[in-house]
TrEMBL record:
Organism this protein belongs to: Paenalkalicoccus suaedae
CDD domains for the chain: PcpA_C_like, PcpA_N_like
Pfam families linked: Glyoxalase (PF00903)
Alphabetized UniProt keyword annotations: Dioxygenase, Oxidoreductase
Gene Ontology MF annotations: dioxygenase activity
Database matches in InterPro entries: Extradiol_RC_dioxygenase, Glyas_Bleomycin-R_OHBP_Dase, Glyas_Fos-R_dOase_dom, VOC_core
Protein name: Ring-cleaving dioxygenase
Residue ranges constituting the VOC domain according to the UniProt record: 8-132, 153-270
Length: 313
C-alpha cells in the first residue's frame, strides 16, 4: 500500500492564557486576520480562536484554546517547539522594526542558510518569521502591514521529538516528505505544498515538555478531502499506527494520533473551510457554534469572557 502524499501543514493549535491578550497580539501586532470565533467543542466553556489569511486558507491557520488562569506549560520533547511564519521576500526588515516598535524582543538567527526573526508571544510560545518567495501573498492588510509585508501563513515548524529517528522515518515513509539536508542539530524535510511545507527536527532537545499555557497542543497536516483522509487513515492503520475516528470540527474533519516522537498529530481536511457559515467580510465577528451546542448558546455566552477585536485601520 503506497503512502498518500501530504502537502504540508493545515493548522497549528496552541494553549494560551488570557483571550484578549491573545487577540491583541495575533490580530494587532502580527496583523493576522481573525477568521473564526467559536468554542472548544470538547470544552464549550472555552473559546477556540482561529487566525489566518483573508479567508483562513489551509496552511495559514493558527488556532488557540485560551484558558485564562491555567497552569503554565513547559516546551520540550513531544511537542512542536517553534512555529514559523513566512512573509514575502524582502519583508524581514519590516518585521524587525515592527516588533521592536511594539515592544517585542526579537533576535535574528540562521538555519539552513535562511535568516529567521525569533521571538516569543505574550504566553511564551516560540515563534519565528522567515522571508520566502514561495506561496501566495496574503490579501489581508492591517495597520501599516500591506500585502507586501503581511504574513502569508506558515513557513513550517521546528519539532522537538523524543525520538528524532522515528519521527524522521514517519515524515519520509508515511507522509512522503523529502529529506532535504542535515546541518548541526537540525534535520530538514520538505512537503510539496506552497505553505507550511518545511519541517525541521531539532535533535538537541532532550527534556520532555508538559502541556499547558505557552505550548503547542497539536500540529495538523492537510488532507485534500474526506476520501484522501480515509486513504491516509487506512494507510496508517496498515502500519499499526492507531488513529481516532473521524471527528467533525465543522470547518474540517479530523483524525488524531500520537507519532513515535510523542508529538500529537492531526490530519485535517481542506474542505469545507471557514466560509460555509459566514461571508468573508463577516469572518470572526459572531460566535459560531455547531448545531449540537446551539441549545446551550445562552449559557455559553454567559460564561465566556467578552472580547474586543482590533479594528482594521
Amino acid at each position: 500500500m503506497t503512502a498518500p502524499t501530504i502537502a504540508g501543514i493545515h493548522h497549528i493549535t496552541a494553549i494560551v492564557g488570557n483571550p484578549q491578550r491573545n487577540m491583541d497580539f495575533y490580530a494587532d501586532v502580527l496583523g493576522l486576520k481573525f477568521v473564526k470565533k467559536t468554542v472548544n467543542f470538547d470544552d464549550p466553556a472555552t473559546y477556540h480562536f482561529y487566525f489566518g489569511n483573508e479567508q483562513g486558507s489551509p496552511g495559514t491557520i493558527i488556532t488557540f484554546f485560551p484558558w485564562d488562569g491555567a497552569r503554565k506549560g513547559k516546551i520540550g520533547t513531544g511537542q512542536v517547539g517553534t512555529t514559523t511564519f513566512v512573509v514575502p521576500d524582502g519583508a524581514l526588515s519590516f518585521w524587525e522594526e515592527r516588533l521592536r516598535d511594539k515592544g517585542v524582543k526579537a533576535e535574528l538567527a540562521t538555519r539552513f542558510n535562511e535568516e529567521y526573526l525569533q521571538f516569543l508571544d505574550p504566553d511564551g510560545l516560540q515563534l519565528e518569521i522567515v522571508a520566502r518567495g514561495k506561496g501566495p501573498n496574503s490579501e489581508w492588510e492591517f495597520d501599516t502591514i500591506t500585502t507586501n509585508e503581511a504574513i502569508k501563513g506558515f513557513g513550517g515548524t521546528v519539532l522537538y521529538s523524543s525520538d528524532p529517528e522515528a519521527t524522521s522515518k514517519l515524515l519520509v515513509e508515511h507522509f512522503r516528505m523529502t529529506h532535504v539536508a542535515t546541518a548541526g542539530d537540525f534535520i530538514r524535510f520538505e512537503a510539496p505544498g506552497d505553505l507550511g511545507n518545511i519541517i525541521d527536527i531539532d535533535t538537541s532537545k532532550t527534556e520532555p515538555g508538559s502541556m499547558g499555557v505557552g505550548t503547542v497542543h497539536h500540529i495538523a497536516f492537510r488532507a485534500n478531502d474526506d476520501e484522501h483522509q480515509q486513504d491516509i487513515m487506512s494507510y496508517l492503520h496498515s502500519k499499526d499506527i492507531r488513529t481516532t475516528e473521524v471527528k467533525d470540527r465543522q470547518y474540517f474533519n479530523a483524525i488524531y494520533f500520537r507519532e513515535p516522537g510523542s508529538i500529537l498529530y492531526e490530519v485535517a481536511t481542506d474542505p469545507p473551510g471557514f466560509l460555509w457559515d459566514e461571508d468573508q467580510e463577516e469572518l470572526g465577528k459572531d460566535l459560531k457554534l455547531p448545531p449540537w451546542l446551539e441549545e446551550q448558546r445562552e449559557k455559553i455566552e454567559s460564561i465566556i469572557a467578552p472580547i474586543t477585536i482590533p479594528e482594521k485601520k
